Amino acid sequence: MSAPQAQVQRSDFDQVMVPNYSPAAFIPVRGEGSRVWDQSGRELVDFAGGIAVSSLGHGHPALMQALTEQAGKIWHVSNVFTNEPALRLAKKLIDATFAERVFFANSGAEANEAALKLARRYAHDVYGPEKFEIISMVNSFHGRTLFTVNVGGQAKYSDGFGPKVEGITHIPFNDLEALKAAISDKTCAVIIEPVQGESGVLPADQAYLEGVRKLCDENNALLIFDEVQSGFGRIGYLYAHQYYGVNPDILSSAKGLGGGFPIGAMLTTAKIAEHLVVGTHGTTYGGNPLACAVAGAAFDVINTPEVLEGVKAKHERFKVRLEKLAAEYGIFTQVRGMGMLIGAVLNDAFKGKAKDVLNAAEKEGVMILQAGPDVVRFAPSLVIPDADIDEGLDRLERAIAKLTRG
Fold first, then answer.
1. Beta-carbon contacts of residue 241 (< 8 Å; ≥ 6 apart)
2. In this structure, are residues 368 and 361 in contact, taking their beta carbons and an 8 Å threshold?
3. Residue 125 annotated to the active site
4. pLDDT tens-place string over residues 177-216
5. How confident is the model over 288-347, as pLDDT tens digits?
6. 92 is a catalytic site residue
7. Closest CA to 24 of 365, 394, 384, 401
8. Distance CA 278, CA 280 (A)
9. pTM attached to this predicted model
């Protein structure tokens, strides 16, 4: 028999972990569907989804089966070899998207790092070393590596780490004139989240994305869509750009891709992919058999009319109720977003207090997120039962009633 495990409590975090997070006071220990239980046995409704990661909730049977089956076969082989789950998953992604080639990584930051490196390498090879500039959006978020954090347009994340990566320009999102003014023959890539996630759940305008695509073509710049948060069924389409009918040259995917198992992917065309020749980029764990087996199972569940249509229907259920709360308590000025990525914008009295709403919600037994200090974000399971939506929103209403009426 194995030895009993040591007791663990939240205060241990402060003794053993680097203090870059400030986690909640409770520790979740078990999840089933869209419900989570903490150490004391208290049950919470999960509207956070591990920050848009747990795309099929907790303990989904298809994912459990894929993981345990693969665990009994082979866990890791490195990229000296390939493996069956990686090739199967790549084929699924290619068959369902614009892409012809896939690179697997372990996270969204790594998928974006690969996308940005590929864009620079492609421009270098095809047009010469002068074409290396990257245009990104103010308040965007693309990861925490030194490259991706500099591309992300938020100084609070990128300042204080020494010299910045050169050749990156930030312009306002959804502003085509700003892109016209910034883009040039030195631009190698424009990177955009079709739905900005971290900075407040802001969908791009249709005409804007179409205009961006045209400007990129005219300036021989690659268009990169960061769909780490908006992708893999999250908005009711496999990828958000499919809703807009605008294809990128490179796409990054992660978060919900593995349904909770760490995996990232960069998707691109064969012509662009050619420029990552042997040795130009790599990752030890990328394409791990366990991760790819789980992601393949998640794909089979999510990329179906039932689930994708269900996401759209569940969005309406959330939106109607959140707008009712807005009308009754005045706490929200707008409910925006798509599918199971929803942002509720706080009114002037609650500006900057998204964290307070989170804490009040947790006390009532519902887990939610923020997207910046002024927006409450919901990113639950794509298959969350309607009964859990209703119960979670009942709990949220109790929290809002206490916040607004004492």
1. 194, 209, 225, 227, 247, 248, 251
2. yes
3. no
4. 999 999 999 999 999 999 998 889 999 999 999 999 999 9
5. 999 999 999 999 999 999 999 999 999 999 999 999 999 999 999 999 999 999 999 999
6. no
7. 365
8. 6
9. 0.96
Identify whether the C-beta of residue 313 lies closer than 8 Å to the C-beta of residue 382.
no
φ/ψ of 74, rounded to 5, equals -155, 135
Residues 38, 226, 249, 388: which is the catalytic one?
226
Of the listed 141, 232, 261, 350, which one is catalytic? Answer: 141
- In sequence order, what are the beta bridge partners of 336? 343
For 322, the token pair is 């959140």
The tokens describing 163, both together, are: 């010299």
Closest among 291, 294, 208 to 246, alpha carbons compared:
208
Structure tokens at 233: 């069924």
Is 225 annotated as catalytic? Answer: no
Query: Do 44 and 367 contact (CB within 8 A), yes or no?
Result: yes
Sheet holding 35-38, edge to edge: 28-32, 35-38, 43-46, 366-367
CB of 390 within 8 A of CB of 366?
A: no
Angle subtended at Cα 402 by Cα 398 and Cα 406, rounded to the nearest 5 degrees: 160
- DSSP letter string, 98-122: S-SEEEEESSHHHHHHHHHHHHHHH
Out of 131, 255, 314, 353, which one is annotated catalytic? 255
